[in-house]
Specification:
The chain has about 800 residues and is of the alpha+beta class. Helices cover about 20% and strands about 30% of the residues. A hairpin with a 2-residue loop joins strand 23 and strand 24. Helix 13 packs across helix 14. It is globular, with a radius of gyration of 29 Å. The N terminus is likely disordered. The structure holds beta-D-mannopyranose (BMA). Beta-D-mannopyranose binds next to loops.
Length: about 800
């Protein structure tokens, strides 16, 4: 029986899909099945309580069956966990109200990964994609009194291997990760976080579990499953409209009326509609009153992030049957690929609300091997750290997970633009019907879940798979190449791209990263050289060349990945290691390094400019070595990022107009060496402090060309500035400058990078006491008439290891821990 409540009646609020608060006046009943379940392994030798949402590893640790999986070599010691099959079981009692509902769904927001679900001993359904939400209609299987719900999970390693074995017609490389990663094979055969089988910065913990919520949803007539909305701007009419999509699950055909309104914009529209049985999607468009002034959402550093409340009310006859509210943010995004004056190729930059914006930021990887351990505080700290370092963009990289709703909500609020990859990375993928089918479901679900977020400015099909094919990472015989290219196009273009564009017309889609974009498309989606500097985005890594030499960096249109490794600090490593691990040559030190020759590369790069630690005390030598890798990394990424930022306004030999610098990588998944600027646990590496400067809105950059010192003023501000460069020449021996030089006041147009100072180094030093390249260094800043604009920067005239006059400072630091009552 349907209980109708009049508009003036009571309302019950509950959380609905992150941004939405729903009150269903039609009495949808929800039974939360999260909490303590029972977990057992395949032979029954282990039986323990397990928290849901959660995973097997977390449960085993919480119950004391294993110690910290991140401790020392435990990733290898605990390999057995993911080689076993596990079963989650819970019991629940049915309430009388629930059993009379017309439809009852058993909903899993996420099963990791290969599961079979049974209720009271009867099979309900199967799962094989961690990125899908599943619901099963279970009304007929429920009984009065106690019900038993069980989810059996297959070992993801064995499943992936079985899938690989069954795929006999041709290989789908790579078979296994490089040995140095100590990982598992064939992860491309399972729709699961690809880095969970190991990566070059992460351990192999192929998780299994119910990693998101589980519940029963019971209702009569219909229920609103999901609401999404995207704002679209019509240039011709200078009018905004909001496309609202409702996913409705109806028991039977129902007629109704729908009212959409954004009261603050004085806009409301009512639609007559009907709902067909089953799950259906309906679209409605609300036109925004042109007399209302719409406030726009802007990226961090370019304006505010205002939103409006959209109310959606469904009526049957004159009765309100559902009502929900969501946030709508207004902004437009365009990816501009058009001819560039003085250069072959095409531009590649983002225009937000009509304004070209330089993307400053980094790449985001999974925050933890065990997603159930990612708390709201951890997410908030990381995203706030990005903003604190003056970033405006993050790329959610395609080897991890589609992040949880809260991640995108915070990005919306902080003005962080998100480059959202689909979860395919560094591999070829199967294209059998079953595989494509589950990917299609995944894509539709994720786009529907996420498209309301203004922070997401682009969808991107995969990480590096175009490059892998084009530059033949996997030694595919020439005769078979067409087949792999066909599969590539089938997966990312014919399926993913097509689906995404059907679901969302409000943001661009790029097939891969790196890619030549429009040019790749011209070349049949796999360009001959996806790293072409005249097109699209580029990933660039070089560990051997001297990173202080900006000439080694590619002057790309958009740098979406580049970076250098460093070690986390001792305070981060200490809790997961013991004394015998604390040397650079220890087994532990090489075990945690998952990138071939990584430890040696860091030392070689550091040795180019710094004395390597040589303390006699082994612990001091170790901690000094960790530290010097961070200094090296900070200085390397600074040099490269400065090069990209100063290349925004110029074309040199056909290259330039760089409009993005996203270094690899923001965060860490465990305590190990990596490219991150923030350590596992949230501590900033030296690089992150450097980033705070080198991403500042107004910033001076120095470099040398033919022994001439050049300083650029970089400004992301819209307004023009008048600035001078002030250069302080310091001797390595003194704290006061030996001399100070000023440029004349120059116009620095809004959003540009221009040279404001030029002088041969020899003449600069000749005019400054007894300074030589070895005895002096420079700091410099920008000033307007009244004050300094932006941070102070530094420029070394020689490597610090060759500096003359440097003395030990004898600085002592004391740390006080204060407690607040
Ligand atoms: C890029 C990324 C990751 C990797 C990183 C460092 O290729 O896409 O796959 O972790 O380089 O090697």
């Amino acid at each position: 029986m349907l209980l109708h409540v009049r508009l003036s009646g009571w309302a019950c609020w509950c959380l609905f899909s992150g941004v939405f608060s729903v009150f269903s006046l039609q009495q949808r009943l929800t039974v939360n099945l999260n909490g303590k379940w029972r977990l057992s392994n395949s032979n029954g030798s282990l039986l323990l309580p397990a928290q849901v949402p959660g995973c097997v590893h977390s449960a085993l640790q919480q119950q004391g069956y294993i110690t910290d999986p991140y401790f020392r070599f435990n990733d290898v010691s605990y390999r057995w966990i993911a080689l076993d099959n596990w079963t989650y079981t819970t019991t629940f009692t049915l309430s009388a109200e629930l059993s009379v509902k017309q439809k009852v769904l058993l909903v899993f927001d996420g099963v990791d990964t290969v599961g079979s679900v049974s209720l009271n001993g009867i099979a309900v359904g199967k799962t094989n994609n961690m990125f899908c939400r599943h619901d099963f209609s279970v009304k007929d299987l429920l009984k009065d009194g106690e019900n038993v719900l069980q989810v059996g999970l297959l070992s993801p390693i064995l499943y992936a291997s079985e899938q690989r074995k069954a795929h006999t017609s041709y290989a789908v490389p790579p078979e296994c990760p490089p040995g140095v990663q100590k990982g598992e094979c064939h992860v491309n055969f399972i729709r699961k976080e690809q880095s969970s089988f190991s990566w070059d910065w992460g351990p192999s913990f192929p998780t299994m579990g119910l990693w998101k919520g589980v519940r029963l949803e019971a209702f009569d007539i219909l229920q609103l499953v999901q609401v999404s909305s995207v704002p679209l701007y019509n240039d011709a009419f200078s009018q905004w409209r909001v496309q609202v999509e409702l996913l409705i699950d109806a028991v039977q055909t129902a007629r109704g009326q729908l009212t959409l309104s954004i009261p603050e914009l004085d806009s409301e529209q009512t639609f007559q509609t009907h709902f067909n049985p089953g799950k259906t999607k309906s679209n409605f468009t609300i036109l925004i009153n042109t007399a209302s002034q719409v406030k726009l959402w802007w990226p961090n550093g370019h304006g505010e992030q205002p939103y409006y409340r959209l109310t959606i009310r469904g009526f049957q006859d004159e009765f309100l049957i559902f009502s929900t509210e969501s946030k709508v943010y207004f902004r437009t995004v365009e990816l501009i690929q058009e001819p560039v004056v003085g250069s072959p190729g095409l531009s590649f930059y983002f225009r937000i609300n009509g304004k070209p914006i330089f993307l400053k930021g980094s790449n985001w990887i999974p925050v933890h091997s065990f997603q159930d351990q990612v708390t709201p505080d951890v997410l908030k700290n990381l995203l706030q750290s990005a903003v604190d370092a003056n970033m405006n963009a993050l790329r959610v990289w395609g080897g991890g997970v589609y992040e949880q709703d809260l991640f995108y909500e915070i990005c919306d609020e902080l003005g962080i633009m998100v480059w959202q990859d689909f979860m395919f990375a560094c591999a070829m993928y199967p294209t059998e019907t079953d595989f494509i089918q589950t990917v299609r479901e995944e894509v539709v679900q994720q786009v529907q879940r996420l498209k309301s977020h203004p922070s997401i400015i682009i969808w991107s099909g995969n990480n590096e798979n175009e490059a892998a094919l084009a530059t033949d990472w996997f030694d595919i015989p020439a005769s078979q190449r067409p087949k792999y290219i066909r599969d590539y196009v089938m997966l990312y273009v014919d399926n993913i791209k097509k689906l995404v564009q059907e679901e969302d017309q409000s943001r661009p889609f790029l097939v891969s990263s790196p890619t030549n974009g429009a040019e790749s498309e011209q070349e049949g989606w796999v360009a001959e050289n996806p790293y072409d500097l005249h097109y699209g985005d580029v990933h660039f890594y070089s560990y051997i060349l001297d990173c202080w030499d900006w000439r080694t960096f590619p002057r790309t249109r958009f740098a979406s990945e580049y970076g250098f490794q460093s070690w986390p600090s001792f305070s981060t490593l200490q809790p997961v290691s013991i004394k015998e691990d604390w040397s650079y040559g220890s087994n532990f030190t090489s075990h945690r390094q998952h990138h071939e020759d990584g430890n040696q590369q860091m030392i070689l790069q550091a040795a180019l400019h710094f004395h390597l630690p040589n303390a006699t005390d082994p612990l001091k030598r170790f901690t000094d070595t960790l530290y010097i890798t961070q200094v090296m990394q900070a200085q390397c990424v600074k040099t490269q990022t400065e090069f990209y930022r100063r290349s925004r306004s110029e074309i040199i030999e056909g290259k330039g107009h760089t409009m993005g610098a996203l270094y690899w990588q923001l965060n860490d998944i465990w305590q190990a060496p990596s490219w991150s600027s923030i350590e596992f646990g949230g501590k900033w590496k030296m690089l992150h402090y450097f980033a705070q400067s080198f991403f500042a809105a107004v910033f001076p950059v120095a470099f040398e060309e033919d022994d001439t010192l050049v300083i650029y003023a970089i400004s992301d501000l819209s307004r023009d500035l008048k600035l001078r460069a002030v250069v302080n020449v310091f001797s390595w021996t003194e704290l006061d400058p030996v001399c100070t030089l000023n440029s004349s006041m120059l116009l620095v147009p809004g959003v540009s990078a221009v040279a404001v100072f030029k002088q041969p180094v020899a003449s600069l030093l000749a005019g400054c006491g007894n300074c030589t390249r070895l005895t002096c260094l420079l700091t410099f800043q920008l000033e307007d008439d009244s004050s300094q604009q932006g941070p102070t920067n530094h420029h070394f005239l020689c490597s610090p290891k060759d500096a003359q006059g440097l003395r030990r400072p004898n600085i002592t630091v004391e740390t006080f821990h204060s407690t607040y009552m």
